[in-house]
Amino acid sequence: MSSEAVVPSTQTPVYKRLLLKLSGEALMGEQQFGVDPAVATRIARDVGEIQGLGVETAIVIGGGNIFRGIAASASGMDRATADYMGMLATIINALALQDALEKAGLQTRVLSAIEMRAVAEPYIRRRAIRHLEKGRVVIFAAGTGNPFFTTDTAGALRAIEIGADVIIKATKVDGIYSADPAKVANAERFARTTYRDVLSRGLEVMDSTAISLCMDNKLPIIVFDLTRSGNIKRIVLGEPVGSIVSA
User: Taking the complete model, does pTM exceed 0.85, yes or no?
Assistant: First the structure.
């Protein structure tokens, strides 16, 4: 890690290793599609803050800002083909985020579930853990490498594989609600809920496969507002940010 990224701090993080789940749409900002460099830079700054606290950070990113497989499938495209195209979109996002992170002085590695050696390392679990131990930010791209699985599921799977303490899911709202708060004025906010409640109520946290994986492995999920700078650091320091899903 470069000297720029290391910020001496007396603050003690409550998590040693975490996985940040970003949607592709998170990189769009106010644009209709693609990557907003200003948003990528802000995310990189937030990640730099927790790296400075000694937290090991992994990231899984979606591709919905470029191509969404399930939407293409609904329009008549073969689902497996559409999903593979979506995986390639996550590679583009991972490279864009890697560029922003490295401009912020953070050593970064992109590990892809689909081999693409010219731009990313192949995903190998032990290699990923070694990168984290060396203070590098690891971006997992191409989902699980399999069609019919979302990047939410990839996020849960990778978090469990690397032994993350928590998975933090970035959204545009400040936690989990009973309905979309932008559409339903009296939607109930849950500061804390359980995996079973999320599944039984159909709360839009992550897909059911991802929630089940987290439940089986007792991996807590924190859903938070990415648009507020500093929220990732607040979570790491144990402040009550967002909503927590646990047993």
Answer: yes
